[in-house]
Design goal:
The chain has 257 residues and is an alpha+beta fold. It folds into two domains: 79 residues, Beta Barrel (OB fold (Dihydrolipoamide Acetyltransferase, E2P)); 171 residues, de novo design (two linked rop proteins). Helices cover 43% and strands 25% of the residues. The strands form two sheets. A five-stranded mixed barrel has the order 1-2-3-5-4. The chain is elongated. It binds zinc ion. Zinc ion binds next to helix 6. The site of zinc ion has 8 residues, from helix 6.
Length: 257
């Protein structure tokens, strides 16, 4: 049995038997980890149960074993209480967590992905709910980059021509990128015209990362249209089938009405 110490975010938890919980963490050093927290449901053990709630940021020690790993100790760094207390923030936090949980592999570290979700939680907790849709677009684009399926927006995927020489940009979800107008004539597929302001926004996110939209007054329709395209991309390339998406859609529809 080996002991691992690492920073970790709680992605989800569920009860195991009468007294225990199984916690899924995304950790800085080891990627995804699932570990049993013994007696975490016991009322005498409130200290542990309060910091293994979803989205808590902790320093954990885990005993790695051949069967189920076991949580040895947990020291809280930040609780992100506002992500559980606000319904809108909770819906997004659950959605991002499930994306990371589904795409992240056990004992396969991805520090960029860890930093992304941690920074996103901090950003969400500091931001008004009106900014959540912007944060979501930034999160999803960077998520795609860090798991290695970034949309190709600088060259035509067919002939390699640089995007700046293209007159109009057409995006193909299946091929994962832009096609130039010359190559487009030879192909008969579904393309989505990518407007210049949409392309600029994607480039801005990849250039400036998590804070890219902070000082920008972005049109909400632009964000929503781009968000739909990114969702199609995620669905086609990752097929994550996220349960949390249903709740998120309800929250979004409610806010629009
Ligand atoms: Zn081309």
């Amino acid at each position: 049995m080996s002991l691992i110490q690492t920073e970790a975010l709680v992605l989800k938890q569920f009860d195991l038997g009468e007294a225990d919980k199984i916690i899924t963490f995304y950790t800085k050093k080891e990627g995804k980890i699932r570990a049993v927290a013994k007696k975490a449901r016991n009322s005498n053990n409130n200290r542990v149960s309060a910091v293994v709630l979803p989205y808590c940021y902790n320093l954990i020690k885990v005993y790695k074993s051949k069967s189920l790993d076991r949580l040895n100790s947990v020291d809280n760094i930040h609780r992100f209480e506002d992500l559980r207390n606000n319904l809108n923030k909770m819906a997004y936090a659950a959605y991002f967590s499930e994306m990371v949980e589904k795409a992240g592999m056990e004992y396969h570290p991805n520090q960029n992905l860890f930093n992304l979700i941690l920074k996103t939680f901090y950003k969400m907790s500091k931001s008004p709910i009106e900014k959540l849709e912007n944060i979501s677009v930034v999160f999803k684009l960077l998520f795609l980059k860090y798991i290695g399926v970034q949309p190709r927006i600088n060259y035509c995927y067919e002939c390699g021509e640089k995007q700046k020489t293209l007159h109009r940009q057409y995006f193909n979800v299946r091929e994962g990128g832009l096609i130039c107008s010359e190559c487009l004539k030879k192909r008969n597929e579904n393309y989505r015209l990518l407007k210049q302001n949409e392309l600029d926004l994607i480039k801005r996110v990849y250039r400036s990362e998590i804070n890219s939209l902070d000082d920008l007054d972005v049109n909400i329709d632009l964000i929503r249209n781009l968000d739909k395209l990114i969702d199609q991309f995620i669905l086609y390339h990752l097929d994550l089938n996220l349960k949390s998406n249903d709740f998120l859609q309800i929250i979004k529809d409610f806010d629009k009405n």
